[in-house]
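Human: We require from you a protein record containing the residue sequence and its fold in token form, and nothing else.

Assistant:
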Amino acid sequence: MTTIAPGYSTHAGTYTVPIQPKTTHRRLLIVWVGAIALVAAGLVAMSGAMEKPSARYMCPPQCGRPPIGEPVTINPRFTSPDGSFSVSYPAEGAAYKITKNPNGVTADLLAGDGGTMRLFSEPANGRSPKDIAAALVDKTFPDTKTAYQIPNAMVGYRPGFGMVADCWPQGATASYSRMRVIVLVAVKDDLALVAGAVGPYHAFGPDFGSGKPSAVNLQIALDMGKYVNSFSWRGDPLR
């Protein structure tokens, strides 16, 4: 007996090709999705096995510290001999001549309009910042006329008092006809910290000054601001 293989015919010289099974697009897609899901599950499992659990803290008492670094010091800093206060001051060079005293620093501006800035302390003796500012101005420049009070004045980030005044020096040696005086004072622990400046009056405008509206009209005041709030009393944080 002869067995006829599939696809062959009993008629001589003829051959029938058998029908081949075909993979549908749907089945192919399912296979690919399954393979990708399997690989992804393996990677997730591996990552979970390698990752260490994050530390757990109980706050309080384990509250840690704020995520900030130590203050960056750019300008030199003066500290009084008794440690009662400290303040930053301009670096000595082409722009400033620096003179140090036991109670503070004097910076003479050598460029532009010139002028003098003082950063110092004195005992408050129970006086208010306003009384101290007025006494300093009357003692140093007795013939002044108050231009305006500085609103929300602060020294060392502590509320205080500030004023701007004008004076007209008399005598043949006077270099300017009108001088502008600025004084800011704040008190803590009966110690007054004072920032003062004096120089020739020079009206601010589009071609002079900071470019922003201001009635200060004193060139050295443009550099004074960053030192006013660098003051710190004993025990205050660095700034």
Summary: Residues 78-233 form a domain with the Protein Transport Mog1p; Chain A fold (CATH 3.40.1000.10). Residues 25-50 form the longest helix (26 residues).
